[in-house]
Amino acid sequence: MKKSYLVIACSRCQQFLVAREGIKTRRCPYCGTRMTLSKTEVLSTTSDIEEARSILHSKRESISEQLMATERRKRSSTRF
User: Fold this and answer.
1) Which of 45, 52, 54, 65 is deepest in the core (most CB within 10 A)?
2) Domain residue ranges in the chain
3) Model confidence, pTM
4) What is the full DSSP assignment across 4-73?
5) Is 9's pLDDT higher than 90?
6) What is the largest CA-CA distance in the chain?
7) CA distance 72 to 29
8) Is the Cβ–Cβ distance between 34 and 26 less than 8 Å?
């Protein structure tokens, strides 16, 4: 039986992480929160761990770019 991997976001700190499908809980390595996977929103599912890692990386990059753009807008709007 082939394993499936889930890309999820921590319910507390919103960091993205990978979990194996079929497990009941997963502890966030960033904040320590234990999540029940049946109650967690799945952002993506794949049977390839490398693809799951790639999705994870692209989601983190996207969030980082959004935060940088927001900071640039804040700085430019406060200049006189």
Assistant:
1) 52
2) 5-77
3) 0.76
4) -EEEEE-TTT--EEEEETT-SEEE-TTT--EEEGGGSPEEEEES-HHHHHHHHHHHHHHHHHHHHHHHHH
5) yes
6) 63
7) 30
8) yes
